Amino acid sequence: MAEELKKLSRRVLSVVGGKGIEGLNYKDLCIQPDIELPDDYKLPNFKIFDGASDPKAHLRTYYDKLIAVGKNEQIHIKLFMQSLTGDALLWYISQNLKKWSNWVSMASDFMDKFRFNTENALYVFYIQNLNKKPMETFREYATRWRSKVAKVRPPLEE
What we know:
Helix content: 40-55%
Order of helices and strands: HHHHHHHHH
Number of helices: 9
Shape: elongated
Largest sheet: none
Strand content: under 5%
Number of strands: 0
Radius of gyration: 23 Å
């Protein structure tokens, strides 16, 4: 009975004081907690991925920014979160990060999750129905139209 009272007291204290709550310490929250960045490392300005564009293009642009940290895959995984926002960031932080032993395993999971962005290519009928927006200049419309045409599958012949 005394042991049960101690357990109950600890639980009440942890709820009231926030102490002892599982999963809130550095090692639980930090991605790659054992990896240290060089002291003089300056975080590059990553292009941000929100889950709505081409994931492979994002991986390429991200990887190109990591020249300063060399080939250390654990640092690449640790910093990847800095290039994500929205649904992509939510996906990333909900993963069990220990399952990614190397960059390829993380990048493969990322590609699997967001592959639909590359598989849902636009078709000709989409371009046919692309209208000018009311507040859009003709030049803006033409630029937007050409950008969409470049993504049509199969490609339009000129």
